[in-house]
Amino acid sequence: MKLYNRDYNILTKEEILEWKRVKNSEKDGILFGRINKFREYPKAARHYSTLFPNNYLDIQELKNEEYISKVSQKFLEKINEQNVNERQILNFINNNQYYLIIASLFNLYDFGHHDAYLFKEFPLGNSYVVDYLLVGKGSGGYEFIFVELEKPSERIFVKSGDLGDTFTKGLRQIANWKRWCENHFLSLRETFDKCRSKSADLPSEFFSSDSTRRHYVVIAGRRKDFEKNSEITYTIRHEKRKNEAIQLLHYDNLYDLARRISGKDSY
């Protein structure tokens, strides 16, 4: 589940000295109180000072518009490859550490702007593995987004506009995750404990089973699949989102969302 090559629980002497230097410059202002210079911390210190150092999504990367444009374009090229499947897409994201592609899903929610984390191939006990788990903090605390990748092609919707085999498979997976979380969510505390900073305690949201804090995303198909019988498709997506907290998206949505976060202050 660790996202990066280095361990951000450990800082070098140079990083500690630079971090202290910046922190010492965070003087109290007359009008606005203490000035926070988090963005000026060394990158490693930004990670180190968060709840999950090795799973933190660094907001400073959002300012690198050239990088986000490059990553978005490479992702588009990948999903345009003939016969590409969901495992190849997942490997493409993980092997290149293009996590901002998945992190862009925070655009669809009102949390993640205070703190944002990503866990790849997150285990639900010994029963299931979630492709990606996004954890974001908003004004109401932390919430969770469980993400399932499915095929970019093959029976996304049938001719009538109803869900095809690919989305049906993804929804079955979501149903399994939901049932598991209802019965065992508290047991995830041990998994989160292994990832958290040893200088921070887990907030209550991580060990109180509140289903309203859990959201689900299934990604399958391309834009053209959704444009067939678009009225029925829209109705199905709307009902899933409203009644079951499930977003049904296509891979072009991910490309669009990734482009949208470019230059933002937070996820």
Sequence of secondary-structure elements: HEEHHHHEEEHHEHHEH
Taken together, the total number of domains comes to 2
Helix content: 25-40%
Helical segment count: 10
Pfam families: SduA_C
Domain Shedu protein SduA C-terminal: 85-255
Protein name: DUF4263 domain-containing protein
Key features of this structure:
5-stranded mixed beta sheet, two-stranded antiparallel sheet, SduA_C, 2 domains, 10 helices, 267 residues, DUF4263 domain-containing protein, alpha/beta
What's this, in brief?
This protein is of the alpha/beta class and 267 residues long. Helices cover 39% and strands 16% of the residues.
Question: What do these coordinates show?
Answer:
The chain is globular and about 65 Å long. Helix 3 runs antiparallel to helix 10 (251-260). The protein folds into 2 domains: 1-49, no CATH class; 53-260, no CATH class. It starts with 12 loop residues before the first helix and ends in a 7-residue tail after the last helix. It has a 5-stranded mixed sheet with strand order 3-4-5-6-7. A two-stranded antiparallel sheet has the order 1-2. Helix content is 39%, strand content 16%. The protein has 10 helices and 7 strands. It is α/β, with parallel strands linked by helices. This is DUF4263 domain-containing protein.
